[in-house]
Amino acid sequence: MTYKLGKYVEKIIAPIIVVIGNDKQKFANGFALSEAHFSRPYIIQSISASDNRVILSLIENENINDTNWVGEIQEGFF
Fold first, then answer.
1. Calpha distance 32→3 (Å, rounded)
2. Is the pLDDT of residue 74 over 80?
3. In the chain, which end has fewer C-beta atoms inside a 10 angstrom radius, N or C?
4. Edge-to-edge, what's the strand order for the sheet holding 16-20?
5. What's the start-to-end Cα distance of the chain, in Å?
6. What is the pTM of this model?
């Protein structure tokens, strides 16, 4: 299964560097990033800028299954 970031990154027109742990990936712009496939579900942890590039630091989304099909937060009873 592959995952994508949200379509909101399409709005970024500057070059982007994505940092996931020690791994860095370069993208021409937000549209290229929105089309990229990842092996895990990621969310943006932080956004910064350096040398006319946007730097997005991503972390794995641990809460991907925290809601049920109705959209409510799952509660434990035990």
1. 14
2. no
3. C
4. 23-27, 16-20, 53-60, 42-50
5. 32
6. 0.77
Residue with tokens 């409510």: 72
Q: Are 28 and 12 in contact, with CB atoms under 8 Å apart? A: no
Closest among 25, 24, 5, 28 to 15, alpha carbons compared? 28
Residues 56 and 47 sit within 8 Å (Cβ to Cβ): yes
Mean pLDDT for the chain? 87
- 2 closest CA partner among 40, 35, 28: 40
H helix runs in the chain, sequence order = 30-35
Q: Where are the extended beta strands (E) located within 1-78?
A: 16-20, 23-27, 42-50, 53-60
